Amino acid sequence: MSRMKLQQATPFDPEPSGTVETVPAEWVLASKFEELTGVTRETVKQRKKCGVWREGQQVAVVHRRLYVNIKAADQWIRDHLPKPHHPA
């Protein structure tokens, strides 16, 4: 039986200051989306079912798990905000 040598991972430190740039996730589970926004999983499911949010754009189901694209959902919300009225 051969033994594999395990290597210890070293932390990635691209900058001398020790800061590591993180990139926010674009797709999150509906439960995480609820945590971040307050929009419930049921609301997400209803928006998908009614065609308000489209599969592959704002929502996706992968291995029976419901995901939300944060950027696309945010854009959808911005697109549906009431337009400000400018008095004449």
Structure overview:
This protein is α+β, with helices and mostly antiparallel strands and 88 residues long. The chain is 31% helix and 14% strand. It has helices at 30-37, 41-49, 70-79, and strands at residues 27-29, 59-62, 65-69. Strands 1-3-2 form a 3-stranded antiparallel sheet. A hairpin with a 2-residue loop joins strand 2 and strand 3 (65-69). The model is unreliable at 4-13 (pLDDT under 50).
Short description:
This protein is an alpha+beta fold and 88 residues long. The protein is 31% helix and 14% strand. A 3-stranded antiparallel beta sheet has the order 1-3-2.
**Can you count the helices?**
3
What's the β-strand tally?
A: 3
The global form is flat
Structural class designation: alpha+beta
Which helices and strands occur, and which strands form pairs?
Layout: E1 27-29, H1 30-37, H2 41-49, E2 59-62, E3 65-69, H3 70-79
Antiparallel strand pairs: 1-3, 2-3
List the defining traits of the structure above:
3 helices; 14% strand; 88 residues; three-stranded antiparallel beta sheet; alpha+beta; 31% helix
